[in-house]
TrEMBL record:
Residues 8-266 form the Extradiol ring-cleavage dioxygenase class III enzyme subunit B domain. Pfam families: LigB. GO terms for molecular function: ferrous iron binding; oxidoreductase activity, acting on single donors with incorporation of molecular oxygen, incorporation of two atoms of oxygen. Keywords: Dioxygenase, Oxidoreductase. The lineage of its organism: Archaea, Promethearchaeati, Candidatus Heimdallarchaeota, Candidatus Heimdallarchaeia (ex Rinke et al. 2021) (nom. nud.), Candidatus Heimdallarchaeales. This is Extradiol dioxygenase. InterPro entries: Xdiol_dOase_suB. The keyword Oxidoreductase applies.
Length: 281
């Protein structure tokens, strides 16, 4: 057993149907694909889900591996004022093993806890980058009545050499083999944030260029080409996705993963992708 399934899931607002009964067509299309991927994850029966989010701890020059006992939090949909709460048990042992493995390889990584060393107060808040993908997955598990697996949360840094993030992905895959642990990896990621002149980041034609490039890399199974992407394109297009997908790139190459599905939409000022990857046997 090892890591045989990975995905890119968006965390945009308006994606959760329960909180947005009147979704626009593009958001509804994305939500449908996320639900499909969530069902595929359930069918894979992972023992642990590892998720990388850009919106949790922002640690300067270091990757964070969360070692709390719980992830807990709520999410309020601003357009409808509807809300949901969720908590998820963390796989602390696996998180600690990943931290030690990464540290021994010389990666800039820290293990982070919050509140108390253990127990119900050892809990870090669920950010929207974690909450939204896990909400869909939890719904799929509840529907299936299967036992919900534990999670490991990773918070990548934007201040480090991109090769470190690719290397972390490789280590995530290798650890799954060493521990004989069925694992799923999720890159929580929204794409360029400069598609709309009225959005908070304004309009830049680089946004479409970036999103088109990412879609092409996904469908052509060339995520490792991210290492050669132009820094200026990142600065102008303003994605939050690159760093999590770099981790996925390390997994994909090491595990010989291929893209199985890719849905892209841009219902607002940022683009969103829901994509799945499986090991090529």
């Amino acid at each position: 057993m090892s890591l045989e399934y990975s995905c890119i899931l968006p965390h945009g607002f308006n994606l959760i149907p329960d909180l947005n009964p009147e979704q626009d067509e593009k958001s509804a299309k994305l939500a449908l694909e996320i639900s499909s991927i969530a069902e595929q994850i359930v069918n894979k029966d992972p023992e642990v889900i590892i998720i990388a989010s850009p919106h949790n701890l922002r640690i300067s020059e270091n990757i964070g591996i969360v070692t709390t006992e719980w992830l807990k939090g709520s999410y309020i949909e601003k357009d409808t004022e509807k809300s949901a709460e969720m908590e998820w048990k963390c796989d602390r042992k696996h998180a600690s093993k990943l931290y030690i493995r990464a540290k021994n390889e010389g990666l800039p990584v820290v293990a982070v806890n919050f509140g108390t060393s253990e127990g119900p107060l050892s809990s870090i808040p669920l950010d929207w980058g974690t909450f939204i993908p896990l909400y869909f997955i939890k719904k799929a598990y509840e529907k299936s009545k299967k036992t919900i697996p534990q999670v490991v949360l990773i918070t990548p840094s934007r201040d480090i050499d991109w090769k470190h993030l690719v290397k972390l992905g490789e280590l995530i895959y290798l650890l799954s083999i060493e521990e004989n642990k069925k694992t799923v990896f999720i890159a929580s990621a929204d794409q360029a944030h400069a598609h709309d002149a009225n959005g908070p980041y304004g309009f830049d034609p680089a946004a479409k260029s970036f999103d088109d490039l990412i879609c092409k890399m996904i469908t052509s199974n060339s995520l490792n080409d991210l290492l050669g992407i132009d820094q200026g394109l990142i600065e102008h297009s303003k994605p939050d996705s690159l760093w999590q997908i770099l981790i996925l790139a390390g997994i994909a190459v090491k595990a010989n993963m291929v893209n199985k599905s890719c849905v892209y939409e841009c219902p607002t000022y940022y683009g969103m992708i829901a994509a799945s990857f499986e090991r090529k046997i």
